[in-house]
Amino acid sequence: MSAPQTTPEVLWAQRSSSSDPEKNYITLTIGAPDTEKPSIDLKSNSLTFTGHSETKKTTYHVELEFYGEIDVENSKTHATSANVSFLLRKKELKEEYWPRLLKESKRVHYLKTDFDKWVDEDEQDGAPDDIDAMGGMGGGMPEMGGMGDGGFGGIDFSKLGAGGGADGMPDLGGAGGMDFSKLGAGAGEDEEAGDDDDDDEMPGLEGDDKDAAVADKAEEADGKGKAKIQEVS
């Protein structure tokens, strides 16, 4: 039973020059780990790669038809346990970049830009050319940066409790700058004032005074009536 066939990831970047062949090239990195004696067929307009990996139990295979011509004799390849890299010299010296790697403009899922090596066309003159005879051409996507300290847009939630009370709550600067601690003090003073009022003697009821006065007048009138009766008799 033959091993399954896998299309490997291909990363690419480029530089261009109208006068210097050493600065007019394509870099390719084929992600085919642990391939033993891969078959590489490089032509002026295409590349066919086939390599079997015993550790991955698969055979990697990919065919690329280039947008422009390649100088095969001056191109180089370099294999590691992780990938196989290529330095392909463009045959035509030209200042402009290739608009794409492949002849056809359709998008393929396995082909990606190698951002570790990519430099924009208008910035390549000032960029360092650190590729030295296939040295340092290891592949792989660039490491993605994290959210940074604090995360969530850089908000440091630990600082929200700074300046707060024992419970870690922030100061309530709103509500018109009210100091809620003073509200409790005012309430205590009102309660103390209420206690003092309770200690004073309660005033007499107005209705009771009127009843007592009526009773006194009734007794006085009754006494005068008895006196008149005695005088008459």
Could you say which structural class the secondary elements and strand pairing correspond to?
A: alpha+beta
Mean pLDDT across all residues, rounded?
A: 71
In quaternary terms, these chains amount to: single chain
Q: Give the ordered list of helices and strands.
A: EEEEEEEEEHH
Largest sheet: 5 strands, mixed
Unreliable residue runs:
136-208, 226-233
Adjacency order of strands in the biggest sheet: 7-8-3-2-9
Shape: elongated
Helix content: 10-25%
Q: Bin the strand percentage.
A: 15-25%
Number of strands: 9
* Whole-angstrom Rg: 50 Å
Question: What count of helical segments does DSSP give?
Answer: 2
Task: Report how far the terminal alpha carbons are from each other.
Answer: 156 Å
Which helices and strands occur, and which strands form pairs?
Elements: E1 5-6, E2 10-15, E3 25-30, E4 39-42, E5 46-53, E6 58-65, E7 70-79, E8 84-90, E9 111-113, H1 180-199, H2 206-232
Could you write a compact summary of the structure shown?
By secondary structure, this protein is α+β, with helices and mostly antiparallel strands.
